[in-house]
Amino acid sequence: MNILVTGGTGYIGSHTSLRLIEAGHRPVLLDNLCNSSATVLDRIATLTGTRPTFIQGDIRDRPLLDRVLREEKIEAVIHFAALKAVGESVEHPLAYYDNNVGGTLVLLAAMQAAGVRTLVFSSSATVYGAAQQMPLREDAPLSATSPYGHSKLMIEQMLSDMAAADPRWSFTSLRYFNPVGAHESGLIGEAPQGIPNNLMPYIAQVAVGRRAALRVFGNTYPTPDGTGVRDYIHVLDLADGHLAALDHGHGRPGLQVFNLGSGQGHSVLEVLGAFSRACGRDLPCEIHPPRPGDVASSWADPTRAQAVLGWRARRSLDQMCADTWRWQSTYPQGYDA
Ligand code: NAD
Ligand code: WQD
Q1: Active-site positions?
Q2: Other Cβ atoms closer than 10 A to 224
Q3: Are 80 and 132 in contact (CB under 8 A)?
Q4: CB 83 within 8 A of CB 89
Q5: Band of the pLDDT at 5, cuts 50, 70, 90?
Q6: Is the pLDDT reported for residue 336 higher than 90?
Q7: 123 three-class SS
């Protein structure tokens, strides 16, 4: 299939595009490069022998979308493009509503006009808000604690309303838990700008000497070792989840929602320990107060994705750390350094 991948040069988009090529699809990557580098295209070419078609542009540019959908004969869309920093969304809510909600609106209108009616959407476990009961099933109550979370909820609502209005739409919303890791070659991975917000890239930068010590945000949570517990999922497992969702969803009417997680929780200290094993030395940490808005624990019930899509996460925490370390130690400054 010819598949438009919005946000295709980003962290998850690049790994998924690589997998799409390996599976015989033709991804067309559209990205405005606000949080990624075009260098990743060369790496995908090295790994697959195919340099994907790349269009530098914005999903809010309707004439551009009309042209790309038509000229590239697009049959389905995987929609990653979004801003994703929770804290930043609290400071700049309008930017998040404009980019994430407004951008998706333009994309859906262009798809409707072009008659392209299959879309796989990057949702997030953040739509479960401050849920207390674990593991999280897809039918758990939804809420949001940030404009970023609201933007994901609003988009899910848009998809649900459109699917109800016209049975020709085929939507799949994938709620990712905590994506980490890198391609096992070490050639592509996550390259956050500035100080990483997320745990794994922060630890990786400590390991490579760019940061002094991990700041552990809270050690008195009601968890086995007092630190926050999350469901980490290898980015290549996540990428494979998109292929399974596309296979299952294409041409199937309605909105389907799946958690993509491992179903297993790991604490901050467990992740630090696993990364220390991967890089071969004990990494330093300091205890800090809890980060505002954090929940103690969050992990998925991934039963539905396994039952319906035949997909499950396969890679262990040790492998997530080993692959992150290979990428980080080969390219300590990311793509363009
Ligand atoms: P990322 O920032 O690496 O990738 C997003 C890409 O979209 C970037 O390359 C960016 O340049 C591009 N982009 C942003 N706005 C755009 C626009 N208006 N037009 C064109 N391109 C635009 O982030 P990621 O981690 O790969 O996340 C991909 C998706 O998954 C996002 O929708 C994110 O909200 C969602 N998600 C991510 C996580 C996570 O922890 N990484 C968890 C849950 C959900
Ligand atoms: C994991 C654990 C922290 C950094 C966020 C978004 C969520 C989703 C994924 C997009 C927590 C602790 C972290 C650090 C730490 N993104 N931590 N020191 O908060 O589960 O989820 O990313 O949809 O919406 O909220 O992930 O990696 O930031 O934190 O101790 O320097 O690590 O407190 O317990 P989180 P995270």
Answers
A1: 148
A2: 12
A3: no
A4: yes
A5: very high
A6: no
A7: strand
Instruction: Verify whether ligand 2 is closer than 6 Å to residue 297 (CB atom).
Output: no
Residue pair 42/12 in contact by the 8 Å Cβ criterion: no
Ligand 1, atom 10: closest residue by C-alpha: 35
Distance 13 CA to ligand 1 centre (A): 8
Ligand 2 contacts CB of residue 230 (under 6 A): yes
- Cβ atoms of 2 and 72 within 8 Å: the answer is yes
Mutate to test the pocket of ligand 2, among 121, 215, 217 (most ligand atoms within 8 A of CB): 217
The angle, 0 to 180 degrees and rounded to 10, between the axes of the packed helices 147-165 and 103-114 is 20
Whole-number pLDDT of residue 129: 95
- Nearest-5° Cα angle at 81, 80 to 87: 105
Query: Is the pLDDT confidence value at 132 over 90?
Result: no
**What is the distance between the alpha carbons of residues 60 and 250, in angstroms, rounded to a whole number?**
24
Q: Is the CB of 228 under 6 A from ligand 2?
A: yes
pLDDT digits (tens, 9 = 90+) for 223-233: 999 999 999 99
Mean pLDDT calculated for residue range 281-298? 96
pLDDT value for 296: 96
Q: From ligand 1's centre to the CA of 176, what distance in Å?
A: 12
Q: Is the CB of 216 inside a 6 Å radius of any atom of ligand 2?
A: yes
Between CA 220 and CA 290 the distance in angstroms is: 9
- List all residues whose CB is within 6 A of at least one atom of ligand 1: 6-7, 9-13, 31-36, 58-60, 80-84, 99, 103, 122, 124, 176, 179
Rounded Cα distance, 71 and 58, in Å: 17
Query: Rounded CA gap, 66 and 64, in Å?
Result: 5
Contact 224, 169 (CB under 8 A): no
Contacts (Cβ under 8 Å, ≥6 apart) of 72:
2, 4, 28, 53
Q: What is the pLDDT of residues 136-191, one digit of tens each?
A: 999 999 999 999 999 999 999 999 999 999 999 999 999 999 999 999 999 999 99
Provide the token pair at 200: 């794994």
